[in-house]
Here is the input.
Amino acid sequence: MDRIDWVSRVIAAAPAAVYRALLDRESLEAWLPPSGMRGRIERWDPRPGGGFRMVLTYLDATDGPGKTSDATDVVDVAFADLVPSERVVQRAVFEADDPAYAGTMTMTWHLAAAGAGTEVTVTATDVPAGIDQAVHEAGIASSLANLAAHVEGAR
Here is the structure.
């Protein structure tokens, strides 16, 4: 059975506002890094077939948790599908020497109207074996909490 990591959260903002935050460079840098990390986008091309390169830096790399270096995860992301206010599909490849992080992971951000807000469901498939499922899901949940704070505060 293929592993699927997933997390869902209702955000008090319209689907269009959430979608904009998924495709705005400054917004993505602000909310995507999970707790304990900061992010910097080096390349940005927000269109189907385009993508971005993000450097995620651990604020405390004491235990050397990084995939690319002791303190960083570098990921190249391609936009595979963009459906305004409904879905963003990303194909992510980590820059890593360890084969446990090799491969292309697909991240699907599904947006659905939920009352006065948006239910955002993130599913990850083909997750590299070196990424612990519980840690990954906690990281996605942290990013979703950041996304909620970002778009809810912008209203």
Notes: The chain has three helices and seven strands. The radius of gyration is 15 Å. The mean pLDDT is 94.
